[in-house]
Amino acid sequence: MKAIVLAAGYATRLYPLTRTIAKPLLPVGGRPMLDHILDRVGEVAEVDGVHVVTNHKFAESFRRWAETRPVTVHDDGTTSEDDRLGAIGDVRFVVDAAGLGDDDLLVIAGDNLFDFSLAGYVDWWRGKGEASAVALHDVRERALARMYGIVTLGDGERVEAFEEKPEQPHSTLAATATYLYHRRHVPLLRRYLDEGNSPDQPGRFVAWLCLRAPVYGYRFEGYWRDIGDEDQLLEADNRLRALAGLPRRDRYTPD
Which of 16, 45, 62, 70 is most buried by a 10 A CB count? Predict the structure, then answer.
């Protein structure tokens, strides 16, 4: 199994913070956001390679970060919001660049922070046979559900439907950007993109895939944050600072 961490976005909602620092490299709890993700990936014994994909603007920063970490950094060559490949496009880019077409994939967005066990997730998924999976968090409120990709589960936890930011959500199970793709399904990334489907928002591939192959939803409890704005960044920073014994802050700064 290989892990792919998606870190090629430009995070314009966090400007000016992210004009010069890539969002996944912003420190939370005194460490880069990506380090917390690597801690979780490190729990999974089957992962024998970690690939981080970024854009050309921040590639050198990621290479410096990776000098002391067991990861491979991929520069997707893009320089702005206008020419970015999109999350699904970046997964295919890494699959092609690193020759991962025969591997199971653990794909995680570089701005997702959580405390559930990825090893437990993988063990659960192994029991599903030739299938892919998405990790789900119950946001419990319909108003919140409208902000996320929402999943409807059927018998045996199989994904029946996936809808991005629905006006009338059928459930409150939000898809987190933590996916497991069975090696038999990895080649379908190319088919999905070749058909002209959106390369952005990784959940769109799951929505397409669940109509063609088994995809299951893994429900987890505990902490999860998709860091999209400065309030979420400050909340995550203070939570992790508390766990690390660091003082709380009233305003986020990257130092």
Answer: 62
- Going by their DSSP bridges, the two strands 159-164 and 31-32 should be labelled as unpaired
175, 201 contact by CB (below 8 A): no
Residue 195: how many CB atoms within 10 A of its CB? Answer: 8
Structure tokens at 2: 């290989």
Closest CA to 202 of 143, 134, 142, 144: 134
Q: Domain extents for the chain?
A: 2-243
pTM higher than 0.90, yes or no?
yes
In 3D, which of 88, 113, 105 has the Cα closest to residue 2? Answer: 105
Are β-strands 132-138 and 173-181 bridged in parallel, bridged antiparallel, or unpaired? Answer: antiparallel
Considering Cα of 244, then 225, then 39, then 98, what sign does the dihedral take?
negative
How far is the C-alpha of 43 from the C-alpha of 87, rounded, in Å?
Answer: 24
CATH architecture type of domain 2-243: Alpha-Beta Complex (3.90)
Mean of the pLDDT values across residues 186-212? 94
- Where is average pLDDT lowest: 37-41, 181-185, 200-204? 200-204
Cα-Cα end-to-end distance for the chain: 35
Amino acid at 91: V
Helix (H) or strand (E) holding 215: strand 215-219
